[in-house]
Amino acid sequence: MSIWGIRRFQRHDDDMQLNGKVAATMAVLFLCLFTVDVYLNYRPISVGGNPAAESVAISPADLQLNLPQQQSNADEVPSAGVGSGPQIESHANKNLIAIVKQRSTFYALGFLLGLILFSWLLNKKLLFPISHLKQVAMELARGNYLAAANLPEHDQLSHVSQAFKSMAEEIAKREELVNRQKALYAALSQTSKMILRNRSPQVLFERVCDIAVTFGGFNAAWIGEVNEIGKNIMPIASAGINLESLKACTFDLDLTNPQADSPLAISAYGKCPSVIDEIEVDPGKTPWHRLAQLSGSRSAAVFPIVTNQQVVATLTVYAQERHYFTLTIHDLLDEMVKDLAFAIENYERTQAHKVAHKSLEKSSGQLEAVNKKMSLILESTGEGIFGIDERDACTFINKAAAEMLGYPQDELLNQQIHKRVRMFDEAGKSFNSAVLQRGESVRVKDESFLRKNETLFPVEYSTYPIKEEGRFKGSVTVFRDVTSTRSMMREMRFLATHDSLTHLLNRHAFDQRLRQAFANCRDHGMQHVLLYMDLDQFKLVNDTCGHVAGDMMLRQLSHRLQRTIGGDDVLARLGGDEFGLLMENCQLDRAQRLATKICSVVKDFRFTWEGRTFSTGVSIGIVAIGPNTESPHSALSSADAACYVAKDMGRNRIHVFQPYDEEIKRQQGEMRWVGRIESAMDQQRFSLLQQPIMSLRSSAIGDEHIEVLLRMQDERGKQIMPGAFIPAAERYNIMGSLDRWVISHAFRWLSENPQRLDELGLCAINLSGQSLGDGSLHEHILEQLRKFNLPAEKISFEITETAVVSRLDQAARFISLLKRRGFRFALDDFGTGMSSFSYLKRLPVDYLKIDGSFVSNMVNDPVDKAMVESINEIGHLMGLQTIAEYVEDDQTLEQLIDIGVDYAQGFGVVRPMPLQMAGSGPLNAA
């Protein structure tokens, strides 16, 4: 209560004391009036013995007024006459007593009524307000400051009421301020607890916003993070206001932008708090102001969160009252923000410490692991490692080193190891001394160490110096036993120049010797002779008995050839069953004689395997190397061509290369075909034709057969028949690629022409003998079948008899694999050798194609006709259908029908046509 209020209350107390005195004065006044009234009106009665005075003193009017009953008595007195004096005196005394009683009762009643009236007025005007003031005071004491609002503004104690109201308002304001401060203290306390938990900044920001609203008494609070370039603020935590609404706003900190003129920008750039006491009168129109107005707040404040002298975030709080942020609240919020900054820095330090601790633990673990690994490596490595100090005493040695030297480890430790292990240079000094003198490592590739049992073993070793602060402290030696390595190197050097199977020189070493010989011819005019040899029918051994048998045959033949040639001649295996012989400083006639001898030796050679005996021959091409020879490569190519000429002439023959030899030119022409074939494949200059195969027994729909034929166009678009390029493709091993091309394109055509596929009973595709040896061809065929979704039973593969005979096992396996999937097979050119009948039982084929050499002349030659009849009969006995090739006229066709051949094919039936030209219906004999 203020001094002014206390003084006013004292004046109220004085008034109450004055009113009490007035009440006492009234009581005394009533008593005095009563006494005077009695004395003035009835004094004669008190005068001794004078009735007249008494009679005078007592007026009839008074008697009539106050004593009505005595009036009748008085009227009776005159009638009685005047009595004696004592009687009158006695009667007057009685009247006086009666009057006094009447007056006393009258004044007592008046006093009582006045006192009651005065008490009521006193209670209404004074005691009730005082009691009300007392109740209000008690409510104020309990903390109910709104009770002062019920005090009357105009009454006898209005100034006291106003004092009470003023006092209550001041106390309420101070209490509200204290409550605000308590709330902020609570918020600060909660924040401190959060900081002690060392939460992440994001979690801490969210909890601080909740604390500011829950404990701090604010309407809303949010924290925004300042981006790296300091251009804007991104809200990351909020309470009392939707975070998504905040994120939808742009809080620009560019002070040159009018929209950025807000407390956020001022606080972020000034690194100081920014307060708005009255938001509704603030001129700002930024998102910050709009959010404040929408939240119902009347004042707000922004506090920067500064870490490492850099504003990283801002705390914005909103209050419902104007001028809410007093100096005390400002200081408490500033303290809270500083605690936040401390928490962030502490968290970062803690995280950095954790990272450093983890890194240290990891490094320690890695170091421990490295030490352990190094220890394991030292003990597990196959190389010997030992170290010595500056006095040549062994400081450590691993297990491998001790075992290689033949010593236990403890027997060499702390011993001068160089006295037990020979490790000296030509001057008799240890290599450790050289390391000490030169201060650099020493590497030795050709040295021997001495074991404990006095035996030597070759080693390669390196010695490295150990230095500490530039001073030599010893050395480390790493060595390994190279006994097996040197043996392996010798073997590798041998294998690098020799064939591993025959131990003859290989192709690379032979080329080097050939280049040396060519250089001698050019520089010294010398002449040499080159022989290129190719075994005949060698693949028959591989195909019938396997590669193990073939390898054994090659070894035995190589030894015979090595014994046959001269000691100065160079024999080499060039690959497969091909050999090269270089006769240096030799004339051509001598080379021919030796070639003839080689042919004789090879022809007389017999190879036996598992009870079976094989003979072979050799085709030899000879070329002279002289000053006019173009190059070693041309010489080898000419010898190769001459060898193939010898093979074509009947095998086991010799052919000498001549510059104008027509056979050589043909052979070289075939070699040129290889490049043309590969170019045609790259440029898509191959095409497919179809040639119908006519049924001689059936005219049913769906029994039409065709054979797919391959053609090549040259660079000018001219069509080339297969006979021109197929031999070269087979000879130079590119026929497999052509077969795959035909299969893929034929399958594609069948898939793209479903109507034609339904009309056909069979589509025949030729396969070369080389493809039978391709172990992955059947997988390629099955893959294409799945790709184009074709019925396998409508595909037939034709394989020539000669190809089957040379690769019987491979052919049987290949045919069996594909027949299980539904494919069919035809044996083409059957009858070229009567020995084919013995192989026919082993081949699960479906068709026999009678060789055209018998069919084309069967009308004029009874022997050819008999051959056709026998092949057809044997085929039917084995359950096979027969197809006659090279049917050129109607007479041949009629004889085939008489014999009972199932199908006919040739120009006399239908000529080949493009695949796009479909037949008009099934072909038949009718």
Can you give keywords for this protein?
28 strands; 926 residues; alpha+beta; disordered C terminus; 33 helices; six-stranded antiparallel sheet; disordered N terminus; elongated; eight-stranded mixed beta barrel; 53% helix
Low-confidence stretches: 1-12, 45-83, 920-926
Judged by helices, strands and strand pairing, the structural class is alpha+beta
Number of strands: 28
What would the average pLDDT be, to the nearest integer? 78
Shape: elongated
Distance between the termini: 140 Å
Read across the widest sheet, the strand sequence of neighbours is 19-20-22-23-24-25-26-27
The main sheet comes to: 8 strands, mixed, barrel
User: How much of the sequence is in beta strands?
Assistant: 15-25%
Radius of gyration: 68 Å
Helix content: 40-55%
Number of helices: 33
